Amino acid sequence: MMTARRRWLVAMAALAIGLAAGAARAAAGPKEIPLTIEGHRFTPAEITVAAGAPVVLVISNKDKAAEEFESRDLRIEKIVPAGKTVRVRIPALKKGAYAFFGDFHPKTAQGRIVAE
Ligand SMILES: [Cu+2]
After folding, report:
1. Phi, psi of 40 (to 5 degrees)
2. Per-residue pLDDT at 18
3. Å from CA of 77 to ligand 1 middle
4. Which CATH superfamily is domain 31-115 in?
5. Binning pLDDT at 50, 70 and 90, where does residue 13 land?
6. Ligand 1 centre from 106 Cα, in Å?
7. Residue 78: its pLDDT value, please?
8. Number of alpha helices (DSSP H) and beta strands (DSSP E) in the chain
């Protein structure tokens, strides 16, 4: 027969295992790739991803002006306010190159995602 204390320890151990499993599942989500906007340019300007797996771009705008991350190839448009960070989900891609640009500063803000 379990004592009350032992029952409590077993319950806490089960809870800890459950929390660890939840954390492992969260970590197995789409890969996150940082992308910085500074001086109206993207860094890195070329992002390599694995074909067939979605990723999340974590786009930080360090400029004092808003930018819009845009890709006609991917049909994505997302405003990134000045000084803010936004997350953009990129679907699983076939092998190839997919251009993106900053719609508010297209002369300098250019980049591409290469899926291989
Ligand atoms: Cu646009």
Report:
1. 60, 35
2. 65
3. 6
4. Cupredoxins -  blue copper proteins (2.60.40.420)
5. confident
6. 10
7. 98
8. 1, 9
